[in-house]
Design goal:
alpha/beta; P-loop_NTPase; 5-stranded parallel beta sheet; Sulfotransferase; 10 strands; globular; 3-stranded antiparallel beta sheet; transferase activity; disordered N terminus; transferase; 365 residues
């Protein structure tokens, strides 16, 4: 196993004290080596049994029981972690939170952000071992709500700066230390909701531990839940608007990206991303092809072909889901909704989102 500066320090019993500031980012998996103890401040089950959580509106969908927490439908098993994240997260100024609604480019954004931010420590064009060639992107960038749900904040603290972490929460559910401004930076990626729901349907059907057989998940039922605003993490239009408004108000703290723009000109999106994270590409790097190297390393074809991202490499656990690694790399295209929706379904979804976004300055058109 590649021994990072953090892992070497952890072997001496005081990881975070020995890691120089600015030596990151490093993969979360390389920190999560069993040497950093879990926090034991409060059992998470207490939050589930509290009057606050017990009183929340709830509904059952094909994926999980959902609770309506602060205006957002959350899987029940997420709620303790969200509460702890809101209460206990201490951002660093150079932290970067990567956010998205599910199946809107999350995995691609993780890879691009890590490759761009860590390019000096891990040159993407080098023939040697790169973390993205040996680890799944979800092993590199931590899903922060689950870190707090498991009581593993000490592992976040052990990461050298800058830290990358991901979330599917809307901006309004992020900790006040983040949303108040100045806490850290946030990058959000959105996607045409029609493509999102198609991708989500395929993704969930590949997952295990659903209340019913995953292959029996109805596309119409998931489609209706998104249109009604009752899907997990929904309403989806409120999700995207929360980040759009934050990006308009604080463009220095929140970067708003579109999946379709990432596809049209990945290189330009990588430049924007790197500059926003405080690690812009120099003229010498541009001339040497550093941007193109990041784009190629993180390309859909390359990522899908890596052994670490195939089924035989294992699965990714997330709450009550066990997800085959290749489920994160299905097609990576825009417009696949046309193969799954009738024109009437597409018009219905477009109309709902158009009405909900009216007057906000944002649209998917």
């Amino acid at each position: 196993m590649l021994l990072t500066p953090m892992a070497a320090a952890a072997a001496d019993g005081d990881a975070s004290a020995l890691v120089p500031s600015g030596s990151g980012p490093v993969p979360f998996k390389d920190i999560d080596d069993g040497t950093v103890p879990a926090d034991e401040h409060t059992p998470r089950d207490k939050d589930l049994s509290s009057d606050l959580v017990a009183a929340l509106p709830r509904r059952q969908d094909p994926i999980a029981e959902l609770l309506l927490y602060q205006g957002c439908w959350l899987p029940k098993y997420w709620v303790p972690g969200v509460i702890e994240f809101q209460r206990r997260f201490n951002p660093r100024p150079d932290d970067v939170v990567l956010a998205s609604y599910p199946k809107c480019g999350t995995t691609w954004l993780m890879a691009l952000a890590f490759a761009a931010a860590a390019r000096r420590a891990y040159p993407p064009a080098a023939t040697g071992e790169h973390p993205l060639r040996r680890l799944h992107p979800h092993d590199i960038v931590s899903f922060v709500v689950e870190v707090f749900a498991r009581g593993e904040e000490a592992k976040l603290d052990a990461l050298p700066s800058p830290r990358l972490m991901s979330t599917h929460l809307p901006f309004t559910l992020l900790p006040p230390r983040v949303t108040a401004g100045g806490g850290c930076k946030v990058v959000y990626v959105c996607r045409d909701p029609k493509d999102m729901v198609v991708s989500l349907w395929h993704f969930l059907r590949r997952s295990c531990k659903l209340p019913s057989k995953p292959e029996d998940l109805s596309f119409d039922e998931l489609f209706d839940a998104v249109c009604d605003g009752t899907s997990a993490l929904g309403p989806a239009w409120d999700h995207v608007l929360s980040y759009w408004r934050a990006a308009v108000a604080r463009p220095d703290r929140v970067l708003f990206l579109r999946y379709e723009d990432l596809q049209r000109d990945t290189g330009e999106s990588v430049r924007r991303l790197a500059e926003f994270m405080g690690r812009p590409f120099s003229a010498a790097e541009e001339a040497a092809g550093a941007v193109a190297a990041v784009v190629e390393l993180c390309s859909f074809g390359n990522m899908k072909a890596l052994e670490v991202n195939k089924n035989k490499a294992g699965s990714v656990a997330s709450g009550n889901l066990v997800i085959p690694r290749d489920a994160f790399f299905r097609k990576g295209v825009a417009g696949d909704w046309a193969n799954h929706m009738t024109p009437e379904m597409a018009a219905r979804m477009d109309g709902i989102f158009r009405e909900e976004l009216l007057g906000t300055g944002f649209s998917f058109a």
